[in-house]
Write a structure and sequence with these properties.
- The protein is an alpha+beta fold.
- The protein contains 11 helices and 17 strands.
- The strands form 4 sheets. A 6-stranded mixed β-sheet has the order 6-2-1-7-17-16, covered by helices on one side. A 6-stranded antiparallel β-sheet has the order 10-11-12-13-9-14.
- Helix 1 packs parallel to helix 9, helix 2 packs parallel to helix 11 (411-433) and helix 3 packs across helix 4.
- The protein is globular, with a radius of gyration of 22 Å.
């Protein structure tokens, strides 16, 4: 079996290293932790989650990300298995206890054998050694420069993380528990209503609040899927009321009606000691965050355990650079995985890490390349990465990237069809991999 380098111990790198080691390859896993950290990381273990503890919907037949997770389960994803094992209540979403999740991934990597762990800031790629680069959205400067020079130019945008508040500091006299359209008092979300007058005060404070100074990068853009709340607000006074503050389906038991606007809080841990402000990624100064977000009555005395932060996100101009198996065109034993490829999101990163590992393993064993096709969510994401386009942007899992189906008027029926087709295809692929 071959010697393989995996650079980066995040979700994609951990998935790839584990798969290859289980296949008998000798893997060297490089990561800068625990000797140093990027601006957004603080956990010394592998598989650290940064922006949120949610891996999004677990609805297999009604949500593309839910389908993607099921594809990964069928293929035996170690990281998704860890997520399922460390799940915390979050309605239909798969949210995890971050600490337990990272612990389990780290334990799996250290117990599998065949993996050598090297703590090092890698500044170049040895193209003579089979390699998977999974350094994520915060790839260090020297390696970014090497990739830009030897492979392609990089693009940069900002990715924002939401604040976390202490559970026991939430004023439940001004909040209620229920999931959207769920019964009062039953659910995984704490809802913080606000009336029209309060919302207008909050809105004016938000759009005039001071933001943290940005670093001077080559190009600054904001990805729609992780847009800072203050940027979203400046699109119009009611934008947030149709976004993260939408009150639809949330009946306030005190009034019997939907609020004018409503903030939702989601558990960060199983015990409910910490809550994430859903959809409130932000780049506001820390003092401004407390002032602005505390205008919601339920948060008037909130203790902020972590303020929102903004960090750099780096990804390749992948079309024309990466093939649809995540290998570098012209360098067939060098692969990329994770958000650096232009897939956006935790589950999408896991999928790219597994796909890159499967492809590299098969190449090293002289087995034919597997075409995941755009009938699967995994395959559709890899096609997005490889397909030439004028303005390449990161992509989340969604039904729109899948191969179209015969026209169906019922949207729910169409989703079920696409999901069922994807799962059937993945089952066929899984059987061929394990032959």
């Amino acid at each position: 079996m071959a010697k393989i380098n995996v650079i980066g111990g995040g979700l994609a790198g951990s998935e790839a290293a584990y798969y290859l080691a289980k296949r008998g390859h000798s893997v060297t896993l490089y990561d800068i932790k625990p000797n140093s950290f990027t601006p957004a990381h603080q956990n010394p273990m592998f598989g650290e989650l940064v922006c949120s503890n949610s891996l999004k919907s677990n609805d297999v037949y009604g949500n593309a990300c839910g389908t993607l997770k099921e594809e990964l389960r069928i293929l035996g994803s170690m990281v998704i298995e860890c997520a399922d094992s460390t799940r915390v209540p979050a309605g239909a979403a798969l949210a995890v206890d971050r600490e337990l999740f990272a612990q389990m991934i780290t334990q799996n990597l250290k117990s599998v054998g065949n993996i050598e762990f090297v703590c090092k800031d890698v500044d170049s790629i040895d193209f003579s050694v089979p390699t998977i680069v999974a350094t994520g959205p915060l790839t260090t400067d020297k390696l970014s420069e090497f990739i830009s020079k030897e492979i392609c130019g990089g693009l940069y945008f900002f990715d924002a993380a939401a604040p976390i508040v202490s559970g026991d500091s939430i004023d439940m006299e001004h909040a209620f528990i229920c999931d959207r359209y769920g019964p009062d008092g039953v659910g995984d979300y704490i809802n913080c209503p606000i009336d029209k007058e309060g919302y207008e005060e909050f809105y004016n404070l938000l759009i005039n609040a001071k933001t943290a100074e940005k670093h001077q990068f080559e190009k600054i853009t904001v990805f729609e899927g992780c847009m800072p709340v203050e940027v979203m607000a400046k699109r119009g006074v009611d934008t947030l009321r149709f976004g993260p503050l939408k009150p639809v389906g949330l009946t306030d038991p005190k009034t019997g009606r939907w609020p004018y606007a409503c903030m939702q809080l989601r558990k960060e841990d199983k015990e409910g000691t910490m809550y994430n402000i859903v959809g409130f990624q932000t780049n506001l100064l820390w003092g401004e965050q407390k002032k602005v977000f505390s205008t919601f009555p339920a948060l008037k005395n909130a203790e902020f355990l972590r303020y929102g932060v903004m960090h750099r996100n780096t990804y390749l101009r992948s079309p024309g650079v990466l093939d649809d198996d995540f290998s570098v065109i012209g360098k067939p034993y060098t692969y990329f995985a994770g958000q650096i490829t232009g897939v956006e999101g935790y589950v999408e990163s896991i999928a790219s890490g597994l796909m890159a590992a499967i492809a590299l393993d098969r190449r090293l064993n002289n087995k034919p390349k597997i075409d995941f096709t755009d009938h699967t969510v995994m395959g559709a994401l890899s096609y997005h990465v490889a397909r030439e386009c004028e303005d390449f942007q990161p992509m989340n899992a969604n039904y729109g990237i899948l191969s179209p189906v015969p026209r169906m008027k019922d949207k729910a029926e169409k989703k079920r069809f696409l999901s069922a087709r994807a799962i059937q295809k993945i089952q066929e692929i899984s059987e061929s991999i394990h032959e």
